[in-house]
Inverse folding.
């Protein structure tokens, strides 16, 4: 049997280029080889955005469009909405009974996320306990592999600790999922910081050409290069970082011309915008087709939920029996 892979993404805004190269393109590759379950993590979106949910349903729809246009194929994987599977929440509740508070308080991203989102009140149980919900997401499908970035490894280790504790307290039931470490370059946002919806510095996959060109034109570049005839330092330029991802064959020429002041930043950004639009053209074409069939999106998610729930229901029944609830 194929190994089972599980991963999810929050519907907290449009998918951006960082999501594409950091996660989604990897999902597209994995679905060709493994038994993949990919979900829209709308419960997780509430852990930080609980105070404003008016766009949650619309954002879930847009995320579905983004994933399908990026190449996620419901004939090759199971694509579903997390909140359509109530067993996730019930297993999360059962896991919360056996998870020591100290385990959650030591998760590195707990404090860093609070610092990143200072304008929000994250002093809630839901935010502290979201790694337990992640564990439920993974273990309810008995996933063997979870594609993660390096910053998510502590969460995956917590999932294994919860699995081990359950197996020790009751009976051997859950496998210990392994991380499929996703190695990818960090893509800077338009302001030079990490690309993040929280910083509002993203280039969205669905951005129309005019919007994309405007965002690229406003990107920060080498801070030491004031005039066009000043020698550039491509290694510190966020624009050059995009060439290293989306146009590797151009990096040598671009770097040499930049260092010799034969290439200006305006010219460089215009070329980058053209390169990105060419790269994204197949996604935009697929998205345009999907937007003409809105009912198809719900059909895909409903069918995916039915497949996922068959497994989740069986796992939860086994867990309840092991715990003594049945």
């Amino acid at each position: 049997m194929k190994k089972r892979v599980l991963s999810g993404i929050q519907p907290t805004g449009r998918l951006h280029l960082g999501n594409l190269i950091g996660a989604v393109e990897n999902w597209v590759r994995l679905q060709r080889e493994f038994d993949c379950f990919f979900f829209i993590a709308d419960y997780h979106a509430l852990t930080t955005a609980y105070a404003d949910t008016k766009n949650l349903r619309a954002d879930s729809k847009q995320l579905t469009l983004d994933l399908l246009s990026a190449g996620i194929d419901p004939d090759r994987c199971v694509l579903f909405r997390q909140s359509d599977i109530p067993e996730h929440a019930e297993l999360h509740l059962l896991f919360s009974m056996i998870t020591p508070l100290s385990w959650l308080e030591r998760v590195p991203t707990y404090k860093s996320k609070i610092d990143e989102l200072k304008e929000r009140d994250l002093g809630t149980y839901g935010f502290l306990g979201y790694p337990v919900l992640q564990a439920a997401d993974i273990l309810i499908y008995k996933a063997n592999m979870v594609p993660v970035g390096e910053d998510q490894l502590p969460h995956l280790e917590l999932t294994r600790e919860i699995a081990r504790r359950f197996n020790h307290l009751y009976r051997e039931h859950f496998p210990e999922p392994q991380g499929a470490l996703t190695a990818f370059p960090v893509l800077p946002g338009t302001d030079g910081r990490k690309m993040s919806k929280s910083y509002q510095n993203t280039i969205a996959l669905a951005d129309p050409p005019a919007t994309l060109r405007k965002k690229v034109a406003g990107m920060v570049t080498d801070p030491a290069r004031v005039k066009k005839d000043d020698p550039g330092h491509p290694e510190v330029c966020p624009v050059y970082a995009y060439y290293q991802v989306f146009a590797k064959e151009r990096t040598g020429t671009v770097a040499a011309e930049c260092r010799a002041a034969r290439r200006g930043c305006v010219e460089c950004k215009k070329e980058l915008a053209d390169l990105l639009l060419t790269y994204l053209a197949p996604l935009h074409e697929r998205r345009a087709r999907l937007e003409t069939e809105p009912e198809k999106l719900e059909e895909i998610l409903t069918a995916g939920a039915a497949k996922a729930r068959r497994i989740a229901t069986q796992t939860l029944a086994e867990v309840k029996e092991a715990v003594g609830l049945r």
Summary: The mean pLDDT is 95. The chain has 14 helices and five strands.
